[in-house]
């Protein structure tokens, strides 16, 4: 016997029930609104005054004074006997200084900035550009007391300077926090001396992280807390009163704050300050390679699955060459940390100790291998020559060929001299680039020198053609070229036409 079907019906609420239901919903909405407001109140203090009072004594105004040589300006040149001759002579006589020299006396130029005390014995952090070139530096404290400061050390790469003052007693100071813990949306306070108006506090949030402006070691926190001229060198605080950044720059079309300010992250600053405090200078690790990012087309030309790592374009004299790294290697990891791009690698190498031996994993000809490298010191390498030893010249072929949008010919001695190439350099000189071609769009120009194709050295057009054929046979969509211009190398991947 089949069970009987059960009929289900929906009963419509009467007006009284609708009214009660609406009232319940409004009550729930009100409770939710109260809960949100409670959370917001807990996240943002009712007033920033207690925090400002706590940290203000450690923030300082910085006044610098620089002796500027008097400028004579353009001198009037008039012919002898001119009616203006006496006028110019009197004008110059009035501007003679006590030594009888025909130049105005030197004058003093002043500039303002900000800073903060990081130890009770008087170490002060500020921006390098605040005190650069100054011969007198005066520190004004929140109390109004003024002390003369000396420079302990500077680092133009991160725009950080460390100063020292001698006080009669311990000074109020602040500590650095872990800037890596700062999240986009966290509340922050900027303090300093904007536009020379004296101590000032502004509040905002962290707008972005890991911003780069123009420096090699940049790691900026972006904030909308008001930062203006004179705030440079001042601290950016979190809500715990810890310094998580040093206010350095603003993005502005008119010179004033539009809510886009940049503070160098504290985790960069602390490394610099520790070295300046210990050595009076920075000591960064140095690998000794020239590198570029691995783009999608470069990765395809090299047979890589993903566009990651740092591609070595040149290995001058230095630690990398001594260890056996080669042009065309892709650095996949450094000291156990995966390398995503060149910026990350440069920062990691710079943060490594000088003299340390690190394991560098590279991709070479499709295989990965790990090579130990003993790091040098970046500061010692800045002035060194990167020229390689001369090699025996290879006779040039009187041949010209057009391919991949390029017209190329083997290098001759005359071309090497004309293009500024090393006497022993071999390769193909680019004599013409077809406008509108991929090669043109990627920046190749007449005068460039192609030294490698498919990560193999080439000295003739026949070898270039062989590399093209080999890439096609391997199923590659593009060919990787090593191009040099005025000695600077870079890799360029050009798409191969179908047969």
Automatic annotation (TrEMBL):
Annotated region (Disordered), positions in chain: 374-400
Annotated CDD domains: cpPDZ1_DegP-like
InterPro entries: PDZ, PDZ_sf, Pept_S1C_Do, Peptidase_S1_PA, Peptidase_S1C
EC number: 3.4.21.107
UniProt keywords, alphabetically: Hydrolase, Periplasm, Protease, Repeat, Serine protease, Signal, Stress response
Chain intervals with Acidic residues compositional bias: 387-396
Active-site annotation: 129 (charge relay system), 159 (charge relay system), 232 (charge relay system)
Catalyzed reaction equations: Acts on substrates that are at least partially unfolded. The cleavage site P1 residue is normally between a pair of hydrophobic residues, such as Val-|-Val
Highest taxon listed in the record's lineage: Bacteria
EC class of the enzyme, as a word: hydrolase
Principal place of residence: periplasm
Residues annotated to bind substrate: 129, 159, 230-232
Pfam families: PDZ_2, Trypsin_2
GO MF, one annotated term: serine-type endopeptidase activity
Cell location: Periplasm
The protein's name in its UniProt record: Probable periplasmic serine endoprotease DegP-like
Organism for this UniProt entry: Sulfitobacter albidus
